[in-house]
Specification:
Its cofactor is NADP(+). By secondary structure, this protein is an alpha/beta fold. It contains eleven helices and 13 strands. A seven-stranded parallel sheet has the order 3-2-1-4-5-6-11, sandwiched between helices. A two-stranded parallel ribbon has the order 7-10.
Length: 334
């Protein structure tokens, strides 16, 4: 029988890669979307365009995270065996500006979904996309699944709350629930206001004389950056494993924002100096420190590891921006 999977946040970076992976694996894939003023869902456009996929193997349902009645009805009708919960306000810097929205969707939205799952006659396996941001300023590096939760921003607090609830529902109600503790993962489909995409896009635009300079906040900040395609494979491996558990998905390597700048400008044969300037607007009230993950449990139990080296990731993202800008220019002149 065809397996059914449901993805919240299917229009996001991870949702789109996960939908592709599950379709390749022969799943019927369902996803929840929000009502928006345009129907443009660029990350899924290639799947929409395929008549053998859209409304045949891939189905979209309107359901916001703050609308439990609709979520309950849709999930009751679809009856998925696997539920991947990826939706949420995912920008850490913005979570300082919109803390209530962030907590409403990311913390309370997850709780509502857990309650719905608990009530379903056949509860699906549940994957929660949580974050390295739950660790904030961790007591040890690299972090493991046992590292205490100690967030330093509203986003991390919301994810920390939801992470602990997933553990409670797994242990108290015997449900198959997994926390994927995801470190930063990027791709050409990354949102434009995350630092890797912003830098790669600017390097390409500067190369093509479309932009003069790039304004950034803290370029000494460090992160553990991998490729999104690897991380969605980890989600699927964790949810199809025989036992539910928590897993760190990370590369285990730290790089600075400055390293992203150097790699992206090198990919377009430019010297970054002279193009990058500091703008205090992009500084955050607090930064987490030493967020680097130890993925050895995921490797030992799921056979998972990150496969894309940092320089290759940044080159792929920058090349994609050059192609996209060049295509836009030729469309404009046609
Ligand atoms: P994106 O920001 O690209 O996608 C977020 C998704 O959530 C979009 O589909 C968005 O819909 C949807 N969404 C947001 N708010 C709501 C809402 N109120 N109701 C319904 N849907 C909503 O995030 P990513 O794909 O990068 O990340 C996926 C998840 O993994 C997120 O929860 C994120 O916090 C978490 N995560 C991501 C990491 C990363 O490095 N990428 C690392 C650690 C955790 P729309 O398209 O309409 O905006
Ligand atoms: P992050 O990603 O906060 O780690 O959250 P982001 O790319 O936004 O920031 C990474 C680091 O770069 C510094 N920085 C800037 N960041 C942005 N966005 N814009 C700038 O101009 C800029 N200049 C410097 C930031 O201060 C930070 O230190 C991502 C998200 O995907 C979360 O959803 C996820 O949980 C975590 O990764 C793990």
């Amino acid at each position: 029988m065809t397996k059914k999977a449901f993805i919240t946040g299917i229009t996001g970076q991870d949702g789109s890669y996960l939908a592709e992976l599950l379709l390749e694996q022969g799943y019927e894939v369902h996803g929840s979307v929000r009502r928006t003023s345009t129907l443009e869902r660029s990350r899924l456009a290639h799947l929409y365009a395929d008549p053998s996929v859209y409304n045949e193997q891939l189905f979209l349902h309107y359901a916001d995270l703050d609308d439990p009645t609709t979520l309950r009805r849709v999930l009751g009708r679809v009856q998925p065996q696997e539920l991947y919960h990826l939706a949420g306000q995912s920008h850490v810097g913005l979570s300082f500006e919109i803390p209530e929205t962030t907590c409403e969707f990311t913390a309370m939205g997850t709780l509502r979904l857990l309650e719905i799952v608990r009530d379903l006659p056949e509860p699906p396996r549940f994957f929660h996309a949580t974050s390295s941001e739950i660790f904030g300023r961790p007591v040890h590096s690299p972090q493991t699944e046992e590292t205490p939760i100690a967030p330093v921003n509203p986003y991390g607090c919301a994810k920390g709350f939801a992470t602990q609830l997933v553990r409670v529902y797994r242990e108290s109600h015997g449900l198959f629930m997994v926390n994927g503790i995801l470190y930063n993962h990027e791709s050409p489909r990354r949102g434009e206001n995350f630092v890797t995409r912003k830098i790669c896009r600017a390097a390409a635009a500067i190369k093509l004389n479309r932009q003069k300079e790039l304004s950034l906040g803290d370029t000494s900040a460090q992160r553990d950056w991998g490729h999104a395609r690897d991380y969605v494979r980890g989600m699927w491996l964790a949810l199809t494993h025989e036992m539910p558990d928590d897993y760190i998905f990370a590369t285990g390597k730290l790089h600075r924002v400055q390293d992203v700048i150097e790699a992206a400008f090198a990919a377009v044969d430019l010297d970054w100096q002279g193009f990058v300037r500091f703008d205090a607007h992009f500084m955050r009230p607090a930064e987490p420190l030493h967020l680097v993950g130890d993925p050895s449990k995921a490797k030992a139990q799921l056979g998972w590891s990150a496969t894309t080296p940092f320089e290759e990731l940044i080159r792929e993202m920058t090349d994609a921006e050059v192609r996209s800008l060049a295509n836009n220019a030729s469309e404009g002149s046609a």
